[in-house]
Amino acid sequence: MSNSPQKPDRLEKPRLEKAEKIRELGFDPYGQRFDNHQAIATVRPLCPEEPGLDGATVRIAARLMGRRKAGKLRFFDAKDATGRIQLLMSRGDMTEQQWELVSALDLGDLVGIDGKLRRTQSGEVSIFVEELTFLCKSLYQPPEKYHGAKDIEMLLRQRYIDLIYNDGVLDRMLQRSKIIDSVRQTLRGQNYVEAETPVLHSVAGGAAARPFTTHHNALDIELYLRIALELHLKRLMVGGVERVYEIGRVFRNEGIDATHNPEFTMIEIYQAYGNYETMMDLTEAIVTDAVKAISETMVLPWGEEGESSIDFTSPWPRRKYAELFQEAAGCAMSDTEAVKQIAQSKGIETEGKHPDVIVNDLFEELVEDSLEGPVFVIDYPASICPLTKRKQDDPNIAERFELYVKGMELANAYTELNDPKLQEELFLTQLEGQDEEDSMAKMDTDFIRALKVGMPPAGGLGIGIDRLIMLLTNSRSIRDVIYFPLLRPEGMPAAGEE
Fold it and tell me: Which of 122, 157, 308, 391 is the most exposed place for a label (fewest CB within 10 A)?
């Protein structure tokens, strides 16, 4: 591959010529510091209601998105992160040199504007420009309004284009920030401490997932990008941090679909002296507070054109795993033979699998998609929950819940296991039919050592942040709420393509 600069194409060349013209006029086409500018959303309400009256003198920094010409007048649509406003440029309001600058403008340019607010005769809120400052000359030809900004793969690779030219994308990503900030505020209000734990692990534990493997040259050891945050946060509880959480990136070497990206954001939260019911209350508070942060109502739209909605009003129902299974399968999950027959009829592999693994495979097939929610599914088979405390009156049941909304698992929580001997036994015992790389039961000797020091009884919770944002912003793909989702290398064919 050549390292020489690319030659400008036919669309870039005239823009480069305009950049040179700006320099000849004595200005920097790539701008300098531009202080005291105001957000467009702040400026618009300052405009007088009556057309023709001068309003406040304002200063904005924005990108040019549209333009029109009417005699000696030039009209531009300007956009920043808070909204849009019309710019009106008249030769009579500007110096000769400034008017020359106007001729160097292109769509996509970033400009600073000083001028007076005034409403046009048609009622349009406008800034009558007195001074134009170039902040960045754009060399990129914007996509065509109706056709050029629809290539999904191109937009995901060039997210900056998506954010600029597709309405709603920037708003959605800014809502992401509001939601995450709300989560932190809720936890701060309940005295939780935010922690940062290692991304590189020597043992890929805390979840059932395939890790990404890497090599540390200096120590000559294999390491794993973390698949969960759990085990280090529990070590902090052992050390006396009684309420702790982390919002962090985790990595799973698995497929990509509407609800999965190999690199994603999750939050894990642990509360000493709590249990899974404590975590249900906390989950409800986190999600309802997040809804309030971006909406005036607890009922949010889902799907296209009002197709459906999600009512996040609390309290949310709590349904037992066994009851949901029996309703859907028509037999008790303890009826091993019946469960096996139903699973086989659904094309689910049963040979060599532990009965509870078959039950869970069937639960995923028959129940999960039907859970409109929000609904807490509680009390899972203990054998598939190796990090979870059992119910005192029934050791076959684990004190675990999963929160489902629109068939999507949003949260997973346990009453945490803190018996070091039982934990060690569970690490040593792999369930039949479950590969080592897919099992949660990874032996972590230091974690066992920490449990021997003494971890308080606790509740633990994990929430998929990207999925939460999907649900709250009516987004059907996880790619829509991650700034830069993983894509195959540019030019690489999809699987099955030549």
Answer: 122
Nearest Cα neighbor of 463 from 376, 361, 357 is 376
* Reported pTM: 0.88
Structural domains of the chain in order of their starting residue, each with its CATH number: 12-142 (2.40.50.140), 165-317+373-480 (3.30.930.10)
Say how far apart CA 286 and CA 468 lie, in whole Å. Answer: 10
Separation of alpha carbons 107 and 62, rounded Å: 11
**Which residue's entry shows tokens 């754009």?**
138
pLDDT of residue 134: 97
CB-count exposure of residue 72 (10 Å: 0-12, 13-18, 19+): exposed
Mean pLDDT of the chain: 90
409 is in an annotated binding site: yes
Side by side, the strands of the sheet bearing 213-216 are 200-201, 221-225, 213-216
Mean pLDDT of 183-191: 98
Q: Other C-beta atoms within 10 Å of 453: how many? A: 10
Kindly tell me if the per-residue pLDDT of 122 is higher than 60: yes
Q: Among 72-76, 113-117, 384-388, 416-420, where is mean pLDDT lowest?
A: 384-388
Residue 296, marked binder: no
* DSSP 8-state symbol, 72: T
Confidence of residue 430 (pLDDT cuts 50, 70, 90): low
- The reported pLDDT for the residue numbered 148 is 47
Q: Is the dihedral of CA 176, 181, 187, 189 positive or negative?
A: negative
Which H or E run contains 293? helix 276-294
